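2024-03-11 09:14:02 INFO worker-7 job=invfold-0412 stage=load source=structure_tokens
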């Protein structure tokens, strides 16, 4: 799962060196996507037919990635303050949801909620509650209780070895979203002795949505929040334009899929090498097989919230395009595209339109 799907939050200093290769790869992906977004931003600004509106652009490294916020506002001071407060909220949520920080609310829950309902912060309750929605929609393919398997494969990456089938099977028995019991408004219990939660496939999207709420509370109506290139939320649109134009991930470099976002979000999930060798496993753990997913597709999902697009992109990567296209059409205002390195693509939509480069 993520912050990088197999990580959450910023690792402690002693663990950073062991993640250097993965961070370099992630950084390259981030830079590629950021370039797409910034090119679109520049083109939109260049064609603006209205008087120029001031904007503020800031970056912050948090949750193991680079968050960027661009906000249009006549008052630069207000935009700057709003962005700073949004970043503060993301940092606070990292301290709630990180599984690297032993003092985080999630870490405490993972230690103490077995057969005992624990009181948790409202944000943690909400994101876990939302996660279970996608577990049910995907018949368990999306499952935040893969924490033990995520930890197993993170250790494998550090030590450059493949876990044994016995190790995988032992920990696979720990996994099962059905063993997470919610007691509104703020208590959670694990009905399994070894269950642990990893929020890597949804937590970053939730943080983006909270940042959007902060910006709106300051009166910001036009902004783009980019969480490491894998989750993007567009507030309103740039001056003189109907929407923000975002180029989506295209491993084939032939299709150039694009989407125009206005008060909605897009997230991308894909296989990235995590172990040595050209046939190495991806970084999203499949709870059914107990191994990282192996898929040729990059999947981008559009939804009304960043929480939804983040969870949906992982879900659609795991279930594949055949089942995924059926699922997308059951969700209001959603869309998705699967793109292979060979240039094959599959799309589905219940509203938003995904455009190909030549169709613009």
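2024-03-11 09:14:09 INFO worker-7 stage=emit residues=360
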């Amino acid at each position: 799962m993520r912050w990088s799907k197999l990580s959450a939050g910023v690792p402690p200093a002693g663990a950073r060196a062991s993640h250097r290769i993965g961070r370099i790869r992630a950084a390259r992906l981030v830079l590629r996507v950021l370039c797409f977004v910034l090119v679109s931003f520049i083109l939109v600004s260049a064609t603006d037919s209205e008087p120029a509106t001031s904007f503020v652009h800031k970056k912050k490294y948090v949750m193991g990635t680079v968050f960027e916020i661009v906000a249009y506002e006549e008052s630069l001071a207000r935009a700057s303050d709003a962005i700073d407060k949004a970043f503060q909220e993301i940092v606070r949520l990292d301290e709630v949801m990180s599984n690297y920080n032993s003092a985080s609310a999630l870490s405490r829950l993972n230690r103490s909620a077995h057969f005992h309902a624990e009181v948790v912060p409202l944000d943690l309750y909400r994101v876990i509650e939302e996660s279970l929605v996608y577990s049910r929609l995907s018949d368990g393919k999306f499952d935040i209780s893969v924490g033990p398997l995520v930890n197993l494969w993170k250790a494998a990456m550090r030590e450059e070895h493949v876990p044994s089938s016995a190790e995988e099977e032992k920990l696979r028995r720990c996994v099962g979203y059905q063993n997470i019991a919610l007691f509104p408004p703020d208590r959670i219990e694990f009905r399994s002795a070894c269950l642990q939660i990893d929020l890597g496939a949804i937590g970053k999207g939730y943080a983006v949505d909270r940042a959007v709420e902060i910006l709106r509370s300051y009166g910001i109506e036009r902004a783009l929040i980019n969480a490491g290139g894998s989750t993007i939320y567009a507030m309103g649109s740039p001056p003189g334009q109907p929407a923000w134009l975002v180029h989506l991930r295209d491993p084939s470099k032939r299709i150039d899929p694009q989407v125009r976002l206005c008060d909605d979000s897009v997230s991308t999930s894909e296989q990235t090498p995590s172990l040595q060798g050209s046939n190495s496993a991806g970084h999203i753990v499949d709870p059914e097989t107990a191994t990282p997913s192996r898929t040729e597709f990059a999947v981008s999902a559009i939804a009304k919230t960043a929480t939804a697009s983040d969870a949906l992109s992982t879900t659609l990567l795991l279930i594949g395009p055949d089942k995924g296209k059926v699922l997308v059409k059951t969700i209001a205002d959603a869309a998705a595209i699967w793109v292979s390195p060979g240039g094959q693509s599959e799309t589905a939509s219940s509203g938003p339109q995904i455009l190909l480069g030549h169709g613009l």
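2024-03-11 09:14:09 INFO worker-7 stage=report msg="The mean pLDDT is 84."
2024-03-11 09:14:10 INFO worker-7 job finished
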